[in-house]
Amino acid sequence: MNEIIISPSNPRIKELVKLRESPRRRRERGVFVVEGLDDFKALWESGKRVEEVFHCKKLISQGYVSESLAKWEREGINLQEVSEEAFLKASYRKKSDGILAVVRKWSLEIRPPEEVKHTLVVVLDEIEKPGNLGAILRTAEAFGADAVFLSDSCVDFFNPNVVRSSRGLIGQVPVFAGTKEEVFDWLGASQLEILGTSSKQSDSLYESKLARGTAFVLGSEKEGLGSFWKSKISKWCKIPMRGKASSLNLNACLACLLSEFNRATQRH
To answer: Does 95 lie in the same domain as 34?
Structure first.
């Protein structure tokens, strides 16, 4: 184990801050940061390559100091102890549990349909907010989505806010990114029915005949679905609501869609 880092001005601490704040730096190095024991463990257990773990004994739960750190070191992960002041300089959480890791990015390149299970697929078009994307990935994982496609995404997938709001589950769900045309061509090659939602539709989600082999397409937070995807939807429906709200946020909308899909197709 390396000598403890004391100063918040240490170059390695400054580098962690750069990785946290700069998409360009994350692209240059091909890594990103994840903070928190649970988020780190979710990524590690999904088989992602962890390059380094920074830890602060004053903040970390004492039960993990000897057991988990020793286990990670045996797995070949480089461990670096830092002082509380130095750790808090690099931290991006209000309350930290003393674990911050550097993880290698992975490819989001679209793979051939035969390599991806596609009973239930989610397409997010031009999504803009990292926190929303992370929350949606967590929902997609919870309801058993086979894959998530980012169509002309405006979000850096490895933004710390995506990692945090997904609770580290960004490594559990296959995610692919491409242009609208690339994503649509993949859906066509996979022979998926493309379903969209709108409050202006008369057909209820609960009355729709949902079948295995469905792709739910959701538009951006600000603009909704654009003309490209509107012309490609094969089935429209609305989510019944009893209150005065005219729409739901993306994550709530997706939860309704995936829950009903699982019920209707008896996926347990």
So the answer is: yes
